[in-house]
Design a protein that fits this description.
The chain is mainly α. It has helices spanning 26-32, 35-38, 42-58, 64-83, 95-107, 120-157, 176-201, 220-226, 236-241, 244-270, 298-305, 307-321, 336-359, 364-369, 378-387, 392-409, 418-424, 438-444, 453-465; strands at residues 161-166, 169-175, 203-204, 231-232, 278-279, 361-362. Bound molecules: arginine.
């Protein structure tokens, strides 16, 4: 577009038109507007402005009446935009300018005083931190729900015997509760991770202004306190430039999503005809448009797929600040789409995860029948020899020989009679049947963190105490 074709100056947001002769080109206006995304921070933006106006009144930059007039006006604008009775346009550029220009229409001249000792740079930084703080509280609540759902399964089904896997090959008999706890603990750590990230989100940038601070006698502590922030971002330049708190939250989302996807993958495999350990609840299963028999674990598959976008969001946010000069740069408005999407996706995935675990059913018989005739008791025999004084490496070798013999004979460990056993090693004497029971083998693993039921119970209590 050439200069003479540009829309007239009256099309430019009145708030910042002073030095221009015309409005930005329509194409650029659309391209540069962040309104459609940052309107989601309407509440945070209004809350931030209310706190700022109150602080300006407290320190005497505004009269108390002016501050009150601004607060009333801001609440009216909040309602108008919420209800749609007043609609901002891309000419406003973003939510901050939309709110402020409508405010000035509503309250008149005094509206123009709100932006004293403030910039959109500290405004946007404040809004995002407020938005994140709320979502992190929701994140904690939904993480607790998911943990609860899994703990209930441990309490209800945790004593089911199952093969424990390494390399997706059967390793040793364990209790299902032990396996489920190995999914729960990562979620417990996710809670810690989000809580720590929240601590760094919870600092107020408001009053940093464009980057240099202000000559006006503001009190940043005061607006911070009104907004419930626990501390301030100390340096005004850092306050408007930093996005590491966003990256940290999304990193925590990414890690959490990777945990959820491991669980989800297992539900997909376990509900297959090959495993049949699990039947998904109808609320979280779908059918096929062509194959009438299908009961597909779509919810789990979608959760398995969602990390793709959250990892993408993390890459986007890291890339956004890499090599970016100080302080605020317009590039930074690209942070919101990936940030909002990653947080929303993680919140939703956690809620669906909780629902899936609440409604699925385990097939106890399938689990236990899988234990017949496999070699997952081999370690138990080696441990028996070791407990009778045979060095473990030697015991390992002896039991390896027994397994080889079983395979050659086409049989399993139940074929190992006492007469046979002593031929492999004299210390394999006596009745071996207590050592050839998968349940007994699981229950004997009472070491801290082992698969014995008593250890499972202890961990459940420990996790419950922290909820
Ligand atoms: N819309 C901008 C953003 O979302 C707000 C800050 C604009 N500041 C500026 N100096 N243009 O990041």
């Amino acid at each position: 577009m050439s200069e003479k074709d540009l829309p007239s100056k009256s099309e430019r947001s009145g708030l910042i038109a002073g030095r221009f002769n015309s409005a930005p080109g329509e194409d650029f206006q659309k391209f540069s507007s962040s309104l459609s995304i940052d309107l989601r921070m309407l509440d945070e933006d209004v809350d931030g402005s209310v706190a700022h106006a109150t602080m300006l009144g407290e320190v005497g930059i505004l009269s108390l009446e002016e501050a009150e007039r601004l607060r009333e006006g801001l609440e009216q604008v909040r309602q108008e935009i919420r209800s749609g009775s007043w609609q901002p346009t891309d000419a406003h550029e973003d939510v901050h300018m939309a709110v402020e220009s409508r405010l000035t229409e509503v309250v008149g001249e005094v509206g123009k005083k709100l932006h004293t000792a403030r910039s959109r740079n500290d405004q946007v930084a404040t809004d995002v931190r407020l938005w994140l703080r709320r979502r992190l509280d929701a994140m904690d609540a939904v993480l607790v729900q998911a943990i609860e759902a899994l703990l209930e399964r441990v309490e209800r089904d945790g004593q089911i015997l199952m093969p424990g896997y390494t390399h997706l090959q059967r390793g040793q008999p364990i209790l299902l509760g032990h396996h489920l706890l190995a999914h729960i603990w990562p979620l417990v750590r996710d809670r810690e991770r989000f809580a720590q990230a929240r601590g760094r989100v919870d600092r107020s940038p408001l009053g940093a202004c464009a980057m240099a601070g202000t000559p006006h006698p503001i009190r940043r502590e005061s607006s911070a306190e009104l907004l419930g922030f626990s501390a301030l971002v100390e340096n005004a330049m850092d306050a408007v430039a930093a996005r590491d708190h966003e990256q940290e939250v999304v990193a925590a989302c990414a890690i959490c999503m990777s945990h959820l996807s491991r669980m989800a993958e297992e539900l997909v495999t376990w509900s297959s005809a090959e495993f049949r350990f699990v039947r998904m609840g109808e609320a979280y299963a779908t059918g096929s448009s062509i194959m009438p028999q299908k009961r597909n674990p779509d919810a789990a598959e979608i959760i398995r797929g969602k990390p793709a976008r959250v990892f993408g969001a993390l890459t986007a946010l890291l890339t956004l600040t890499k090599g970016l000069p100080l302080a605020y740069n317009r590039d930074l408005q690209e942070d919101r789409e990936p940030l909002f999407d990653a947080v929303r996706t993680t919140l939703d995935s956690l809620a669906i995860t909780a629902g899936m675990w609440r409604t699925l059913t385990f097939d106890e018989q399938r689990f236990e029948s899988e234990m017949d005739g496999d070699f997952s008791l081999a370690t138990e025999l080696a441990d028996l020899l070791a407990s009778r004084g045979v060095p473990f490496r030697e015991a390992h070798e002896v039991v390896g020989g027994i397994i080889r013999w079983c395979e050659e004979e086409g049989t399993d460990l139940s074929a190992l009679t006492p007469e046979h056993a002593v031929r492999f090693h004299p210390k394999l004497h006596g009745d071996l049947s207590p050592w050839l029971s998968p349940r007994a083998a699981a229950e004997r693993r009472t070491s801290r963190g082992g698969t014995a039921w008593k250890e499972i119970r202890r961990q459940v209590e420990l996790i419950r105490d922290g909820l």
